[in-house]
């Protein structure tokens, strides 16, 4: 025999002083005239731990118990390779009294190389005092058995946060010399691909959208040097919408079931492009053969890169690069450069300064 014991406390704002809950179970065996009673006394945890179940919701300080000084809120587990987006939409707590902190793997999916994480700090004060980048967090699809992201609340801050689960391709960033990605649409989907290359490189992109098996489709190649205003607008696209952004220029294309494959090749104006792909459900489900295939390679700008390796720029007869992720003293930095086979760069002119500035801000 199994028995489930359920208990709910309805908060009315008044302090709750009891520290345990008692269950009384009366039972009798068939044919037995006696009634038996079992008493279960279970302690009420004094800490505050919430495990969120909805895939999309807004949680605020009004959802928390009134007394605990510290609360931990666990976001839903992500199945099917999905990620999680958390957006802080309200915040007001003196820094001397409390804060909001998001922990877990928080960063951008990067293809190749080592991921670069955006490390969340303790957020306090007022929301408008923090930059937009600190008000939101993206947690990519987790590793097997990884704990879900956690929001820690200290000192009962006034806050509100919106969260939602997103598709596995919500935020995929490529930073290597070349890369590729294949997407096949079988259900509604929203994806964003970003290609960020080091200063001194353009993106040579090859994009194939549509059904390569459609009769008469073939492999029609279109070479585009300058992107134009969007065509085949996204308002009526019941299929796969591809949107490409290169600086202020954009290009878009709507692909429906049965459309022949379209092959686009471009070389970007800048060292970064953004590709957004949206699949909207039609009355009939999209064909599994409806796909988007993307590949790219770095196209170095000779006057900037010269004969230097990928990620480096030419400075007179030298090759220079920026080392990120470490904070070192001058002496430590010189030792690190020597370990890498070089030395700290010297700025001798305004042109040198501009080059290093562009290298640091990567544009």
Automatic annotation (TrEMBL):
It comes from the Eukaryota. InterPro entries: C-type_lectin-like/link_sf, CTDL_fold. This is C-type lectin domain-containing protein.
